[in-house]
Write a structure and sequence with these properties.
CATH topology of the largest domain: Rossmann fold
Shape: elongated
Strand order of the largest sheet: 5-6-7-10-9-8
Radius of gyration: 19 Å
Structural class: alpha+beta
CATH superfamily of the largest domain: Response regulator
Distance between the termini: 46 Å
Order of helices and strands: HHEHEHEHHEEEEEEEH
Number of strands: 10
Number of domains: 2
CATH architecture of the largest domain: 3-Layer(aba) Sandwich
Oligomer: single chain
Length: 214
């Protein structure tokens, strides 16, 4: 969508916007053209979505592809997309100010993975409430500032949720308001804590310290 081009250009990225799949394949077919990321709307109708992705992978087998979540009609589409190595899904209605932070894991994967805050792998049940719906899932890892959750149906970037979970060795339930900061079709989604009690924060900090190698 055009509204994503401006914040990317302001950050120094070169953007190419096209209105149909055929026009998109043209620059990808030119070997001298280097493309770092493809934002894809499946509602472009001149070629069926999975057929386009099949053709895309012939030209660019490793190009990260992020799909606008509003163009996905049902879970069957998500499953069919998984065969083509989709990097993630993005809410096309997210605030313009959140565009760069939402795309940073895909544009700069190496930098994104070198986190200053230690992350500890932990698989515990977690529930999160979005609007009036409560979903149960399992955590992937935790840091002092956030949580990664395994799910095949991640929420859109910037979605606000209320989470509940308990850490091994601690009897109290932790509750936190959080915001979705990244999604990955093969992994799940990442949450950034925005509000919790001081006692809950200290519980997380203690768990991280106890399970982080010196």
């Amino acid at each position: 969508m055009a509204r994503f081009g401006e914040p990317l250009r302001e950050a120094g990225h070169l953007t190419i916007e096209v209105d149909d799949f055929s026009a998109l394949l043209e620059p990808l077919s030119v070997r001298s053209t280097h493309v770092d990321l493809l934002l894809l709307d499946l509602r472009l109708s001149d070629i069926e979505g999975t057929e386009f992705l099949r053709l895309l992978r012939q030209h660019s087998p490793k190009l990260p592809v992020v799909i606008f979540s509003g163009s996905v009609t049902n879970a069957n589409v998500v499953r069919s997309m998984s065969a083509f190595g989709i990097a993630g899904y993005l809410n096309e209605y997210c605030d313009t100010r959140d565009v760069l932070s939402a795309l940073a894991p895909h544009l700069f994967p190496d930098s994104f993975n070198r986190r200053s805050s230690p992350r500890v792998v932990v698989a515990v049940p977690v529930s999160y409430r979005f609007d009036n719906a409560i979903t149960a899932a399992v955590t992937l890892n935790i840091s002092s500032g956030g949580l990664a959750i395994r799910t095949i149906e991640p929420l859109g970037v910037s979605a606000k949720v209320h989470t509940r979970f308990s850490l091994p060795g601690f009897s109290r339930e932790i509750q936190a308001d959080a915001r979705v900061t990244w999604t990955d079709a093969h992994v799940g989604m990442g949450l950034q804590f925005e509000q919790m009690s001081a006692l809950d924060q200290s519980t997380i900090d203690e768990y991280i310290e106890d399970h982080t190698e010196p």
